[in-house]
Amino acid sequence: MFQSLTSCQNYVFFKALFWVPFHTQVMASQCTDLHDLGATFVASSFDWGQVKAFGISIHCLHMKASKKITCGKILSFSKDQVTSFREKIGIRLCCFKIGVTSNPITRFEMYKRKAFTSMWVIWMSDSLDLIHMLEASLILEFHKHVGCQNKEGTGGEGFLNSQDPPPPPFFLYVTGGRADQPRRVGWTLCRGARKKGKQKDTLVLHVRVCMCLLFWIWAWLNS
C-alpha cells in the first residue's frame, strides 16, 4: 500500500495519524516524573532542586534555625510566604490553596492534574499539632481573600488526621495558579465532561484517518 510513497510521505502519513499534542506529552511526562520522585521521597536526603522545574519550591527555614523560633514568628513567617506566593503569581489573578502533607511531591502531582502550576513548601515540622494549627491559622487569615479555595473554619482534616498518620516530618504548603490560564485552577472533569471528551477524541481520530487517506490518495495519484 505504501510502496509507491516516498519515505518522507510515509513519515508525514503516520505522524498525522498518531500525532499527540505537545503540551499533552509534556504534562504526561511531568506527572510520570513526579510520581517516580514522590515514590522515592525521603525528606532528610531529598534534593529539592530536582523538582524546581516542575513548579515546586522549598521556602522553609533551616531546621536548626526553625527550632529556635517562637510560634508567633513561625506564623508571621508563614503568612509572609503565602503573601509572597500570591504576589509572584499576581494578587488579582492568583487562585491558591493552603494545605499540609507528609509528601509534597506526591501531593503536587495530584494538584497538577487539577491545573495548579506552582507549589511553595513554607514550613516543615515533626509536630503534627503545630502543622495543623499553622494550616488552620493561615486559612482563617486568607479564606476571605480573592482566589482562596479553602473554606472558612477548615484545617486539620485529611489523611494526616487519621488514626494511623504517616511518620514525620510534616509540611505546610501553598499551591496555586493563574485565573487567566487556559484551564481553570482546581477544575476536575465530571463524568459528563469525560464522556464528551471521549466522544471528541473519537471524532478527532476519525477526522485524522480521513485526512491521512486523502493524503495517501493524493500522493499516489501524483507519484
If strands are numbered along the chain, what order do they take across the biggest sheet?
Answer: 1-3-4-2
The value of Rg in angstroms is: 23 Å
Strand content: 5-15%
Overall shape = elongated
Amino-to-carboxy terminus distance: 13 Å
Number of helices: 7
How many structural domains does the protein architecture include? 2
Q: What do the pLDDT scores average to?
A: 81
Instruction: Please trace the helix and strand order, writing H or E for each element.
Output: HHEHHEHEHEH
- Could you give the count of β-strands? 4
> How does the major sheet shape up?
4 strands, mixed
Q: Which range best describes the helical content: under 10%, 10-25%, 25-40%, 40-55%, 55-70% or over 70%?
A: 40-55%
Low-confidence stretches: 16-29, 189-198
SS-based class: alpha+beta
